[in-house]
Amino acid sequence: MEIRRYQLSDETNLFAMLREEGPEWEGYWGEDNQEKYKAALKSSVVFVAYEGEQLCGYARCREDNGYGIYVYDLLVRKQSRGRHIGRALMETARDTYPNAPAYVLGDVPEYYENKLGYRVEGTVYIIG
Fold first, then answer.
1. pLDDT at site 39
2. Which of 69, 102, 110, 128: CA 20 to 30 A from 96?
3. pTM value surpassing 0.70
């Protein structure tokens, strides 16, 4: 497996993987949102994981000027799950910025807390 920084040449593979995930990720791959997500990818730190020619996962992050690296999106292709690819992507993000804390903004506590052993640090609220 190779983990590296996202390049524009990965775009087709990434959007195909997002579509495979179905409606849960449609906010990114849907016709109305795709251009907005492409802009988000350009302004983010994105890592991709490949096995041969197949994209098997990605992590989209933001770096906050030394205050932290925040993993916003993490996705591993269904047939590639269970092989620690998600952990490797997040550790790559963390290791790229060794002097800043690393956080993941996730809504799957059973994965982040129970499987990976990450501890909860604060909360996220939506301003309504």
1. 96
2. 110
3. yes
